[in-house]
Amino acid sequence: MRGHIRKRGSTWSVVVDVGYDENGKRIRKWFGGHKTKKDAEAFLAQKIAEIESGSYVSTPKQKFGEYMREWMQDKRSTLREDTFRSYSWLVNGHIIPKLGNVELAKLTPKHIQDCYRKMQQGDKALSNRSVQFAHAIIRQALDRAVKWGWLARNVADAVDPPRVERREYKIWTAEQALQFLESAKSEDSRYWIGFFLAIMTGMRQGEILALRWKDVDFTNQVAIVNGTLKWIDGQPLIKEPKTEKSRRAVALSTETVNALRKHKAKQTKERLKMGAEYQDHDLVIARPNGYYMHPKTFDDAWYRALKKSGLPRIRFHDLRHTHASLMLLQGVHPKIVSERLGHSTITITMDTYSHLVPGLQREVAQQFDDVLFKRVQK
Questions:
Q1: Which pLDDT score, from 0 to 100, does residue 368 have?
Q2: What does the pLDDT look like over 71-128, one tens digit per residue?
Q3: Which helix (H) or strand (E) holds 375?
Q4: Looking at CB atoms within 10 Å, which of 3, 13, 47, 234 has the fewest?
Q5: Considering the domain boundaries, does residue 167 fall inside one?
Q6: Residue with the larger pLDDT of the pair 197 and 17
Q7: Do 90 and 153 fall into the same domain?
Q8: Rounded mean pLDDT of 235-243?
Q9: Is 209 helix (H, G, I), strand (E, B) or coil?
Q10: 193 and 304 belong to one structural domain
Q11: Together in a domain, 149 and 181
């Protein structure tokens, strides 16, 4: 490998032979802007050493925005459609507008840190959680550039994204949950059974709306969670569970089985009444004509019933947290709760409901106290 220095105006440039292209033509790289000949000579020696050791990287003349668009095209086939939409929203709406004109090779930690600060300013400021998501995307994209030998290091590793505050979940007591179910009984059965399932099983809204009768085993009192309902471009689609743990069997209580039987009987009458106009998709929760229910329709029914109940306002998803919290407070092992919710690891369950841990530990400590000292007294 060879190289030389050359004076251009008032500064010195370094010319380095970095190899050959696919046609056998020598590739030369210019590095300008050195104030003195001595600086240029030192830089030349450094580059030759990098080339000979194999640590030299050659970044293409490409803007970061162009690189991100190409990366997104390649990433699309590896992501679920809804996840890709989230990526696109951040990349096209926030990352590229703020970093797109910076050359990939010249991207610095400060560029990225400034980008995060700007994301949190103005009328459309992003939350800390969204900025952390943007940080994860940028790190993924730059990791590939490092693996391809385009960058020597991932500059995003030197950036500190904002800390995400632990979200405090609002939950109901067992008495409040029962009060709501009693109050909401006047709601259409198709909605009420959805509220009931969320409280009694901890299933997500999308999982409940995707549940089919063939997934319900009345004899063994089990419901199989096989997917989640998504609406994409105005069309319903039952998506595969995100992880194998999300595809699970959820044990049903006797009360839940009885409620499902009553709901199915009402639905059967509805189907017979509509005759040929009924679209039978085997859904547990469906529109009057049997078609998929839109989440917005279900949400409207939820907030209508919630307002009527007079109970503290919570999100529908908080019924899932209510279910998990009540189970933990009853002394159910976190591993069972984790499996019931479809968490990928028990760590997620414990992190999510860590606010319950002190109370649970006190109860366990007292139980141990009773067992040990009562035995000693005997």
A1: 65
A2: 999 999 888 887 888 999 999 999 999 999 999 988 999 999 999 999 999 888 898 9
A3: helix 357-377
A4: 234
A5: no
A6: 197
A7: yes
A8: 80
A9: helix
A10: yes
A11: no
C-alpha distance across the termini of the chain, in Å: 87
Question: How many Å apart are CA 338 and CA 316, to the nearest integer?
Answer: 19
Give the model's confidence band at 360: pLDDT under 50 very low, under 70 low, under 90 confident, else very high. Answer: low
How confident is the model at residue 208, as a pLDDT?
A: 96
Show the domain range for 120. Answer: 64-158
* 285 found inside a domain: yes
Give yes or no for residue 357 having a pLDDT over 70: no
Can you tell me the mean pLDDT for 151-178?
86
Does the pLDDT at position 167 exceed 60? yes
Cα dihedral 147, 151, 157, 159, rounded to 10, equals: -150
Q: Are 141 and 107 in contact (CB under 8 A)?
A: no
More confident residue, 369 or 158: 158
**Cα separation values, 255 from 197, 201, 309, Å:** 11, 12, 21
310 and 226 within one domain: yes
Say how many C-beta atoms besides its own lie within 10 A of residue 52's C-beta.
10
Residues 73 and 40 both lie in one domain: no
Percent of the chain with pLDDT over 90: 49
Q: How many structural domains are present in the chain?
A: 3
pLDDT at 310 over 80: yes
What secondary structure letter does DSSP report for 317? T
CATH number at residue 137: 1.10.150.130
Distance, in Å, from the CA atom of 236 to the CA atom of 209, rounded to the nearest integer, reads 11
CA nearest to 266, candidates 185, 191, 189: 189
Domain boundary among 128, 158, 188: 158
pLDDT interval class at 158 (50, 70, 90): very high
One domain for residues 208 and 280: yes
How far CA 113 is from CA of 95, 261, 298, in Å, comes to 12, 56, 41
Residues in the chain: 378
Conformation bin of residue 24: beta by default, left when phi > 0, alpha when psi is -120 to 50: left
Tokens 């009562």 belong to 374
Q: Any idea what the CATH number is for the domain that residue 282 is in? A: 1.10.443.10
User: What's the CA gap between 319 and 123, in Å, rounded?
Assistant: 32
**DSSP for 224-250, written as a single string:** EE--EEEEETTEEEEEPPSSTTTSEEE
